[in-house]
């Protein structure tokens, strides 16, 4: 609950700062709507003599045209930006805000305020669109014994290159989702810095369980997601996490 409260407070603060920062941004064409967002600059590209950037925001990438060549040249990949753009997805303004960046990066350190033994409940939600993410792994299972197999899917925002190999960055968003027809359970949806996520699914007696292993350069976290059929939700429990000053010497390779 403390983690949830902290994240909600952080989001409210970010929205407030974003509104203050861009609320008075001039819009040359008053007939066009102005949209604002913030996120990491995933990539820069040039297509048909037009310059584009992709901003990773809220689990999806926003592709924007940058018409000012000097602005485009000065942008830095993997930097955290606040952006304003019009309904044609043309960049109107962009700036770095170190204050918000520090808050977001701190919030991305999964497990920093988590204690071993902590637990929380994950309820179902309406299906979301994961087509912009890369499917890394999946498994079929009839987790609720209703006679129909459902799908567990592991996604990341990182893409694959022309050779099919993953284009890993220093960090990216990961999502672990159990898809069940007109509902789904988002078991994990967070940023992992210099690491990755693996999952294992199995029945333990009559209970369906998913266990995840999350690794990074300074942490190792083991979580158990146990399905509560009576209440139609998953109970997530932190089974293990490293503590203190951890210097990870070896991680299992991300062979996806």
UniProtKB/TrEMBL annotation:
The keyword Signal is annotated on this UniProt entry: yes
Keyword annotations: Signal
Record-linked PROSITE patterns: PROKAR_LIPOPROTEIN (PS51257)
Domain of life: Bacteria
Signal peptide positions (record): 1-23
Signal recorded as keyword: yes
Name of the protein this chain belongs to: Lipoprotein
Species, as recorded: Tissierella pigra
């Amino acid at each position: 609950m403390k983690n949830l409260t902290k994240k909600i407070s952080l989001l409210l603060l970010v929205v407030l700062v974003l509104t203050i920062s861009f609320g008075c941004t001039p819009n040359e064409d008053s007939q066009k709507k102005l949209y604002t967002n913030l996120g990491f600059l995933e990539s820069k590209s040039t297509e048909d003599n037009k310059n584009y950037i992709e901003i990773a925001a809220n689990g999806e990438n926003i592709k924007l045209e940058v018409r000012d060549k000097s602005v485009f040249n000065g942008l830095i990949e993997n930097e955290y930006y606040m952006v304003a753009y019009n309904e044609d997805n043309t960049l109107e303004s962009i700036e770095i805000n170190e204050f918000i960046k520090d808050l977001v990066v701190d919030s991305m350190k999964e497990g920093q305020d988590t204690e071993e033994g902590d637990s929380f409940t994950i309820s179902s939600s309406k299906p979301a669109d994961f087509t912009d993410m890369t499917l890394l792994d999946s498994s079929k299972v009839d987790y609720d014994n209703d006679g129909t197999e459902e799908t567990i899917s592991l996604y990341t925002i990182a893409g694959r290159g022309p050779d099919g190999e993953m284009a890993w960055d220093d960090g990216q968003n990961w999502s672990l989702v159990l898809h069940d027809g007109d509902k789904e359970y988002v078991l994990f949806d967070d940023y992992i810095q210099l690491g990755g996520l693996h999952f294992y699914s199995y029945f333990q007696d009559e209970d369906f369980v998913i266990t995840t292993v999350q690794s990074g350069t300074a942490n190792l976290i083991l979580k158990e997601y146990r399905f509560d059929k009576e209440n139609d939700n998953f109970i997530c429990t932190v089974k293990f996490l490293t503590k203190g000053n951890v210097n990870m010497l070896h991680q299992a390779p991300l062979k996806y």
